[in-house]
Specification:
The chain is globular, with a radius of gyration of 22 Å. The chain is α+β, with helices and mostly antiparallel strands. Helix content is about 35%, strand content about 25%. It starts with a strand and ends in a 7-residue tail after the last helix. The strands form four sheets. Strands 1, 2, 3, 4, 9, 10, 11, 12 and 20 form a nine-stranded mixed beta sheet that branches. Strands 6, 7, 13, 14, 15, 16, 17 and 18 form an eight-stranded mixed beta sheet that branches. A two-stranded antiparallel ribbon has the order 5-8. The chain has twelve helices and 21 strands. Strand 1 and strand 2 form a beta hairpin.
Length: about 425
């Protein structure tokens, strides 16, 4: 049953005794999770089901759109089943994606999408973040996590046997302090701030990637195909998402965008970029000729793919806060949820509040080793593919090889993680 208090705290209580406990001890938790996206909600569900007292703090109101390719690979479907949301995901998501493609210059190539070994759930699909994130967050709340939304964490400091986390309500400006033994940072990587888990502010660079995203309709792409778009200065992708919409997401280097806007004569950066993509890719031109927007363009900057380390023992990073691959491989959501599964499994096995400082250090190293073995190969593959796609000279060489060996598309998708299971249930 849903219970609302002060219009900004949402609780789903599975048991009456749990409800009484939190009413008495509302600020004391085993773990505070910062961020309610796919990574944070996945961790919250798994830990709450294991009996942990979980506070999940999310700064935005859901549903909300987000710059994202929206695709979940088939390797994530077993985890959706474990979370109990596979069926509603399949009911809402777009069609199965069975082929991968490449649109670059005058080249249009397609080949089969690799399928995970022993996968009983079919192929990967796409679902808008306004639907996926809401589905996962509500599941976390139903599992017993206490969700504070929209609340922003403004400070995080160490204290005796744990952390003090201060958060402020965006609706009422009320401030609360949450005490916990552990903290999981699932707030992504795009924002900088004062938290120990935030990425530091970098100077503006010409190589920065600026990301754009739009929902479209009437895109002429086969239902089972997800094409990669390679164009001078950037890359992108198209996938059929929910409700008959198509998702177009793309990245462009900062130092390329002024020239693109100048040549197009358009004031809106996204519209200029769309025209540039059509002029650079014959396949994109044919696919997008009759496309019409379904809602406004979104943008965010910069995207700086990297691997990040936890700032101290007891603070764990998941999702993009832990590491980010170039979006060219369309594995961001899958990596986020899978990293939450890796960490939650280790925490549940150890039981967080009983861990000493030495045990926390060991657990952190073990999780980092797990994370790197599963995701660093994808990040390296994505960096290579992005390098080949963005630069005109390397794109020309890559297209020559792909003409000779189109099966390289399937191999590339496999190398990016679309066939190697992480979650084994």
């Amino acid at each position: 049953m849903r219970e609302r208090q002060d219009c900004s705290v949402i609780r789903f209580w599975p048991r009456e005794e749990t409800c009484k406990f939190h009413r008495q001890m509302g600020a004391e938790f085993d773990v505070v999770i910062i961020g309610g996206g796919p990574a944070g909600s996945t961790a919250a569900t798994l830990l709450a089901e294991a009996g942990w007292a979980v506070a999940l703090i999310e700064k935005d109101e859901f549903p909300r759109r987000k710059v994202c390719g929206e695709y979940l690979s088939a390797t994530t479907l077993p985890l959706l089943e474990r979370l109990g949301v596979l069926q509603p995901f399949l009911e809402q998501a777009g069609p199965e994606i069975k082929r991968v493609g490449l649109f670059a210059r005058d080249i249009v190539l397609t080949f089969g999408m690799p399928r995970p070994r022993s996968s009983p759930h079919g192929w990967g699909r796409a679902l808008g973040r306004e639907h996926l994130d809401t589905l996962l967050l509500e599941r976390a709340a139903k599992a017993g996590a206490t969700v504070w939304q929209p609340w922003s964490v403004v400070s995080l400091s160490g204290k005796s046997k744990g952390f003090a986390c201060r958060a402020t309500s965006k609706a009422t400006n009320e401030t609360k302090e949450f005490c916990s033994r552990l903290v999981i940072a699932a707030h992504g990587s795009w924002e900088t701030g004062q938290l120990p888990s935030h990425t530091r502010r970098w100077p503006v660079r010409g190589s920065d990637l600026l990301a754009f995203k739009a929902h479209l309709r009437n895109v002429d792409v086969p239902l089972d195909l997800m094409p990669l778009l390679a164009f001078p200065g950037g890359y992108g992708g198209i996938v059929h998402s929910d409700n008959g919409r198509q998702s177009l997401s793309c990245c462009v280097r900062r130092d390329w965008l002024p020239g693109i806007r100048q040549r197009s004569g358009r004031k809106h950066a996204a519209e200029a970029l769309l025209q540039h993509i059509k002029e650079s890719c014959t396949g994109a031109l044919h696919s997008l000729t009759d496309a019409i927007p379904d809602g406004p363009w979104l943008s965010v900057a910069p995207i700086r793919p990297a691997v990040r380390r936890s700032p101290r023992h007891g603070i764990f990073l998941i999702g993009n806060a832990a590491g980010e691959a170039h979006p060219i491989i369309a594995e961001g959501i899958s990596m986020a949820m899978q990293s939450a599964w890796l960490l939650s499994g280790r925490l549940v096995a150890e039981r967080g509040e009983a861990l000493s400082e030495h045990q926390l250090e060991q657990l952190g190293h073990a999780y980092e080793k797990d994370w790197r073995s599963k995701f660093v190969p994808r990040i390296r593959a994505a960096a290579l593919f992005a390098h080949l796609a963005i630069r005109p000279t390397t794109t020309k060489l890559s297209l020559h090889l792909l003409r000779l060996f189109p099966a390289l598309l399937t191999w590339s998708a496999r190398w990016s993680g679309k066939a190697e299971p992480v979650v084994v249930l």
